[in-house]
Amino acid sequence: MKNMPEFKRHRRLRSSAAMRSMVRETHISTDDLIYPLFILEGENTKNEVPSMPGVYQITMDILKEEVKEIHSLGIKSMILFGVPNEKDEHGTGAYIKDGIIQEATRVIKKEVPDMLVIADTCLCEYTSHGHCGVIHNQDVDNDESLALLAKTAVSQAEAGADIIAPSNMMDGFVTVIRKALDEAGFTNIPIMSYAVKYASSFYGPFRDAADSTPQFGDRKSYQMDPANRLEAMREAESDMQEGADFLIVKPALSYLDIVRDVKNKFNAPVVAYNVSGEYSMVKAAALNGWINEKELVLEKLTSMKRAGADLIITYFAKDVAKWLSE
Ligand code: PBG
Predict the structure, then answer these.
(1) Binding residues for Zn(2+), per the UniProt record (predicted)?
(2) Which residue among 167, 192, 220 is best mutated to probe the pocket of ligand 1, counting the most ligand atoms within 8 A of its Cβ?
(3) Which of 217, 263, 280, 318 is the most buried (most CB within 10 A)?
(4) Structural domain contains residue 130
(5) Considering the domain boundaries, does residue 5 fall inside one?
(6) Structural domain for 55, as ranges
(7) Is the shortest distance between the CB of 70 and ligand 1 below 6 Å?
């Protein structure tokens, strides 16, 4: 054996497609996908979001058809955002009985009862000032906003939502929502907490889609500083103690270290939110012919799962479901 090389031949396990699939460590499936939708009031309207080609705001009648298509692709859950006509200081549209998300939830559960409806629980789409809670002295009042969030969660559950996903980053939101849901008899409805949510420029296109840009200031007094890692652990820890059933990390792509940290430290399903700006960047490059969209998206989603995500909220969900079934 005198010519035995002194190195390891890693390429042996990459020699063919079959060999590579045999040793592949990470897989994406349609079970992992959560599809976000923007719901408009009125009827017969489908507006493409300019900064998000392929993403639409749709009215309830169009939603009826859309949910059947989503279901037929094998996607099992959706997260809903409302785009109401009327807004006010207190975000009333978020918690009224016939609010847009409440109505959309009823439509979906009637058309496709198996579809899991995740209600994003926040006020920013419904407040005239665009902030995620009630404003006092130019800042969002934490405790006053909590009561409205709890009310929103209960009205969403009453409408048939399967999972409540509070996203407004007020301290204590899991505690008050859990208590309110339990008191209203919804002890079996899980909370998917946006536990770790950074104040990110990657949300720009979403704010066009949901018409939720803050009218003054920014969200830095409640969303997290992108520079911080230990703070993410504190956020996730308190949400777990307060009773969160799922932990969301958002955005996903620039925060995969945080996804891994959360996965390693907490025993709960981890959800990566592949946010609007991450979508728009890929779309822009793809529309220019600069990248291979399918390969790139599948690589990104695989990376999120490799980092530890169990589930991924993504505007690419329908495309991915189609690609996976090819
Ligand atoms: C509501 C909310 C936002 C997103 C999800 N829920 C916007 C924000 O916090 O400004 C962003 C999602 C995306 O960018 O895709 N608070």
Answers:
(1) 122, 124, 132
(2) 167
(3) 280
(4) yes
(5) no
(6) 26-325
(7) no
In sequence order, the 6+-apart residues with CB closer than 8 A to the CB of 143 are 172
Residue 297 CA to its chain's centroid (Å): 17
Distance from the CA of 202 to the center of ligand 1, in angstroms?
9
**What CATH number is associated with residue 67?**
3.20.20.70
CB 49 within 8 A of CB 209: yes
Count of domains observed in the chain: 1
Neighbours of 241 (CB within 10 A): 10
Closest atom of ligand 1 to 81 CA is 6
- Is 11 among the domain residues? no
pTM (two decimals): 0.96
- The catalytic residue positions are 197, 250
ipTM of predicted complex: 0.95
Q: What is the pLDDT along the chain (326 residues), one digit of tens a residue?
A: 567 778 999 999 999 999 999 999 999 999 999 999 999 999 999 999 999 999 999 999 999 999 999 999 999 999 999 999 999 999 999 999 999 999 999 999 999 999 999 999 999 999 999 999 999 988 999 999 999 999 999 999 999 999 999 999 999 999 999 999 999 999 999 999 999 999 999 999 998 888 888 899 989 999 999 999 999 999 999 999 999 999 999 999 999 999 999 999 999 999 999 999 999 999 999 999 999 999 999 999 999 999 999 999 999 999 999 999 99
* Assigned domain for 15 exists: no
Q: Does the CB atom of residue 312 touch ligand 1 within 6 A?
A: no
